[in-house]
UniProtKB/TrEMBL annotation, chain A:
Protein name stated in the entry: Bb3-type cytochrome oxidase subunit IV
Domain of life: Bacteria
Domain Heme-copper oxidase subunit III family profile: start-end pairs: 16-227
Membrane-topology descriptor: Multi-pass membrane protein
Transmembrane regions listed in the UniProt entry: 37-62, 74-97, 118-138, 158-187, 208-226
SUPFAM superfamilies per record: Cytochrome c oxidase subunit III-like
PANTHER family linked: CYTOCHROME BO(3) UBIQUINOL OXIDASE SUBUNIT 3, CYTOCHROME C OXIDASE SUBUNIT III
UniProtKB/TrEMBL annotation, chain B:
Keyword vocabulary terms for this entry: Cell membrane, Membrane, Transmembrane, Transmembrane helix
Keyword Transmembrane helix: yes
UniProt keyword Membrane present: yes
Name of protein: Cytochrome C oxidase subunit IV
Organism encoding this protein: Aromatoleum toluvorans
Cellular localisation: Cell membrane
Location, primary (coarse class): membrane
InterPro entries: Cyt_c_oxidase_su4_prok
Amino acid sequence: MTTIAPPAAGTAASGWRGLVADWSGDRLAFAVPWGKAMMWIFLISDTFIFGCFLTGYMTVRIATTAAWPNPSEVFALTIGGASVPLILIAIMTFILITSSGTMAMAVNCAYRRDRVRCAALMLATALLGASFVGMQAFEWSKLIAEGVRPWSNPMGAAQFGASFFMITGFHGLHVSVGVIYLLTIAARVLGGRYEARGDYTIVEIAGLYWHFVDLVWVFIFALFYLW
Amino acid sequence: MDHASGQQHPIGVYLKVWALLFVLSTMSYLVDYFHLQGLLRWSLIVVFMLMKASLIVAVFMHLRWERLALVYAILVPPLCVLVLVALMVLEGDYIFLTRGAFFGG
């Protein structure tokens, strides 16, 4: 590669043209395909969004003088006459981890050019994600039926509802979008679009998004449901 | 290593991490199931959370096989959130005490 000297003052383009020239100065910082670098940048910005939500939740939980509802009891389900604490959340956690595992194997199959198996594993991942969203819808309806609202709830501190709906709602939105994203990519894998191009990086990039959704759930599970 | 060809690793690695994540999730669920309380509960929750998070980021998201330039670009900026957390802990405590003073706890 030839060495690129910075343009001398006066000869450099100015305005928008100059901005583009400066940012596309043929200097490569990250030795990864651009799509992957862009996905990482998006995920970092998403990290800050969820970081702010969780920090906000922490702040209102510290600051409230009313007792915080015990998540262990709020999210308990009665199975066979016995109340099992947090069981639905535990099942949702296992489902999301399983979907992360199938996604990782889909990436592996993609790079081995095993088109059918890759698409099947992505489809399995999307189905697991959809069932996760379904369980979340069940959990929401149950809590709403019990009188939990973003501004009040019968169990204790009013801020509980706001934090719950905001954090799990935003995460559920990410899972839903991820399901659509995975189905789109899986259909294209099966259709042979990436085979023709000879490049399956897109599956790995979609995988990054999906693993991130799982990663966020790890933090929500620990900090909101278990704390 | 040719990065254009992407991240390819044996499926066995994924299966092992998958199993580990299952074990760690079960253990963090058991923290709640056995009603552990206080400092023990919180430290266990955080330890299991960080272990799960690092496994996902390192193996599933392939970060341990990426070049250091990318790894640091990804991992260092989110640490800024910790500054916000520290500030908000102080602020939250202050609001709590103020509320106690005004509303008589």
